[in-house]
Structure formats: structure tokens, C-alpha cells
Design a protein that fits this description.
It comes from Tenacibaculum holothuriorum. This is DUF4440 domain-containing protein. Residues 31-141 form the DUF4440 domain. Pfam families: DUF4440 (PF14534). By secondary structure, this protein is α+β, with helices and mostly antiparallel strands. It has a single domain, classed as Nuclear Transport Factor 2, Chain: A (Roll). Helix content is 36%, strand content 36%. The protein has helices spanning 2-16, 25-44, 47-53, 71-82; strands spanning 54-62, 66-68, 86-90, 96-100, 104-115, 126-135, 138-147. Strands 1, 2, 3, 4, 5, 6 and 7 form a seven-stranded mixed sheet that branches. The radius of gyration is 18 Å and the shape is globular. The termini are far apart. The model has no long low-confidence stretch (mean pLDDT 92).
């Protein structure tokens, strides 16, 4: 009996979460493209492209490493700790994009990181949230929340 009740309540909870459908398809495409550009640069150690996409007023919140607010130190950390060592793979179909009026957009998704120095280690999907600010010069990442 307990298993039946548990099954009923679990399925009811899952059904409460609506399936994602882009509110603004064009915005979803733009942010997905920017995600691809940024992380292609991440995976190929193109620090210039990464730095160009990161906002000067960047805030990076990491559930393991804490808060970083210096764009310069974040780019240095990418160079020292990521370049030619770590690659990122987006979990296909996981990107959700929501407009933020008079600012830009918020992106939510899942990705995996692979450490080339530890080729046999398992990578679990991690959730990320990024705020993208629309400026005359294009889209810039202004806030990142990285959860592992």
C-alpha cells in the first residue's frame, strides 16, 4: 500500500513541473549560439574570445569555490586551471532561456566537464545559471551560478 501511495505522490509532483517551451524562440537561439561560442573558446583555450564575452562587472558563484568578482582573476584561472586540461559538454536539450526586460536573458542548463588529466574519472551533469546582458557590443555574461 505504501509503495502505491508513494508512486502516486511522486508522479503527481513530476506532473506539476511544466515541460519547457521557449517563450521567445529567437532569444533562445541567440543565447544558445552565444553559449556555443563561449564554450568552444573554453574548450580550445581561446582566452580572448572568452574575455570578450565576459562582462566587466562579472560575478561568478561556484558551489565549491565561492564567489569571484574579478574578471581578470577569472580569466587567469581559466588560463591556469582549464586551458588544455578541461573540456565542457552541454547536455543536449537542457538549455532554457527566459527574457529579462531591459536587461537581457537568463539561461539555465546542464553540462558536464571532462578533465583530460584524469581520463577515467566519471563526469556528472552539473546545473548552471547564467545572466546574459544585452549591450551595444553584443551579449555579455554578467552573472554565473555553477552547481556541481
Amino acid at each position: 500500500m505504501w509503495a502505491l501511495l508513494k508512486s502516486f505522490f511522486m508522479s503527481a509532483q513530476v506532473n506539476e513541473i511544466p515541460k519547457y517551451k521557449p517563450i521567445d524562440f529567437e532569444l533562445h537561439q541567440q543565447i544558445s549560439k552565444m553559449d556555443s561560442i563561449f564554450f568552444n573558446a573554453y574548450n580550445t583555450c581561446d582566452l580572448k574570445t572568452q574575455a570578450d564575452i565576459l562582462h566587466e562587472d562579472l560575478e561568478f558563484y561556484h558551489d565549491k569555490g565561492g564567489l569571484s568578482t574579478s574578471k581578470e582573476s577569472i580569466v587567469k584561472a581559466l588560463k591556469d586551471n582549464i586551458c588544455n586540461k578541461v573540456t565542457r559538454t552541454l547536455i543536449k536539450g537542457s538549455i532554457e532561456v527566459y527574457p529579462i526586460p531591459n536587461y537581457g536573458a537568463v539561461q539555465v542548463g546542464y553540462h558536464k566537464f571532462f578533465n583530460k588529466l584524469e581520463p577515467n574519472s566519471k563526469s556528472k551533469p552539473g546545473k548552471f545559471i547564467m545572466l546574459w546582458k544585452k549591450e551595444n557590443s553584443g551579449w555579455k555574461i554578467s552573472r554565473v551560478i555553477s552547481l556541481h
